[in-house]
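Data availability (excerpt). All sequences and predicted token strings are deposited with the supplementary files. A representative entry, TetR family transcriptional regulator, is shown inline so that the format can be inspected without opening the archive.
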Amino acid sequence: MAKTRLTAAERGEEVLDAAVQAFGEAGFAGTKTDEIARLAGVSQPYVIRLFGTKQQLFLATEQRVCDRIEDAFRRAAEKKADLASLGEAYRELMAERELLVVLLHGFAASREPAVGDAVRERFGGIYKLVRELTGASAEEAREFLATGMLLTVMAAMGVAGPDSIDCPWASEILDSF
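Structure token line:
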């Protein structure tokens, strides 16, 4: 059976999938582009040809994660435009722990000017989207995002989401949602 040749766009998607996995595991500073290339099954020079630099690849990865969050929120709001529906959509994303960890790595790398500018813009966009989709007040949106960040941190620690470690304090927090 002949192997199907992928387009550059399709390969780029595979590289982004690999980048989510690699950056989720080791963060921006701890990830090498050759590791991402290995995971994607391409050469390191090909990764650079597609994305330019490791920083540009990291930014594209952050964009992908934020796109996924925004898409999940939009789909949830199509069914019911309230914070509870958006919250349920976010909890479903917790099954993809690496997405949430990449988000945290983006926050941590935000002292890097290009990363910080992009991450702040996207987080602000998520905030605005939550308000637009639900009609939430600034205070309600702040509480919603704060809860999301708590769940993100708990997922990163492995105490929330599928296959989570049993931890009484985490169970107590999660039971309140």
